[in-house]
Amino acid sequence: MLDIAALVQNDRVQHELTVRSRDDKTTRNGDPYSVVSFGNTTGQLSANVWKEQLPWLEGVRAGSVVQVIGLVELYQGKRQLKLSAPPRIVATAAVDLEEFLPKISGDVTQLWDTIDQWRGSIRSQTLRRAADVFFADDAFRAAFEKCPGAPRGHHAKIGGLIQHVVEVATIARAATEMMRGDVDLVTVGALIHDVGKVDSYTIGAAGFDYTPAGRLLGHVALGALMLERRLRLLPQGTFTEAHELELQHFILSHHGLREFGAAVEPMTLEADLLHWADQASANGNDFNEAAQDPELFPSDEEFSVRKSWRLDRRVWRRPAAWA
């Protein structure tokens, strides 16, 4: 497989890639052109297709799988692809689409083992049932383990959501133990805080996108609705009203502030620590990926050549490890 992240100037590309996006534009002179983003599981690369070559793109659209031939160039420090032949459309039935989408490098089985070990160690039977309304459901688990953490941004990979949730729970559990809170309670809060993403995002050949429900409601509101529906299927009296409210509070408050998407601000120690754990996982992922981004560090720069859009700042990549 072509390692897009490792490509440098003058490298030749002759591989099958998916079309992540196609943006048809017009130059200042009024001439049409198109910006096409090609990708696979290792990254993506854009090409400007000018007026004379636009016929090459007939039938090429987001989600197409195409054989691409071209050369990597640098423009203002940013890599781009110069096509040398028309992209040839490949039948999607002949390829495994997941091979063209970014995916986590870790072992999903190990992530599930961690989650299930946490579930099994919860002392309160009531709390354990709260986790089990989702995580004892095989259909939910199948969707959850493939779901990205976001369409763009932190953990935007197949398996990104389960990786993010394990990171959040690990951080929140340690912080809650240090602050003498309820570790079992924050564990359940961490496990369920992003369940709405399963119904918010889609996976297709063009990459990740929003479902209609994800666009109209967002994953925070969807998560609260999903929890409500599942709790209503349990025998009456399984949870008290206060228990149900606290579970909902984890979902509705985990973004911290209303301007950042929270319905309410965290009102308990565990909810607040969950929020900061969520933020730590997201920012940590953004820093790790920024330091490895060839668009931010096209050669051996110590500081990124531009701001990371996810972090809204330039990033320093230390020149040497500490001895």
Walk me through what this model shows.
There is one protein chain. By secondary structure, this protein is an alpha+beta fold. The chain has two domains: 4-99, Beta Barrel (OB fold (Dihydrolipoamide Acetyltransferase, E2P)); 102-287, Hypothetical protein af1432 (Orthogonal Bundle). Helices cover 37% and strands 18% of the residues. The strands form two sheets. Strands 1, 2, 3, 4, 5 and 6 form a six-stranded antiparallel beta sheet that branches. Strands 7-8 form a two-stranded antiparallel sheet. Helix 4 (160-178) packs across helix 9.
Topology:
Elements: E1 12-26, E2 32-40, E3 43-49, E4 65-75, E5 78-83, E6 88-90, H1 108-121, H2 125-135, H3 138-146, H4 160-178, H5 183-192, E7 201-204, E8 207-210, H6 212-216, H7 218-232, H8 241-253, H9 269-291
Antiparallel strand pairs: 1-2, 1-4, 2-3, 4-5, 4-6, 7-8
Instruction: Tell me the radius of gyration.
Output: 22 Å
> How many structural domains are formed by the residues?
2
- Per CATH, what is the topology of the largest domain? Hypothetical protein af1432
Number of E strands: 8
User: Low-confidence parts, pLDDT < 50 over ≥5 residues?
Assistant: none
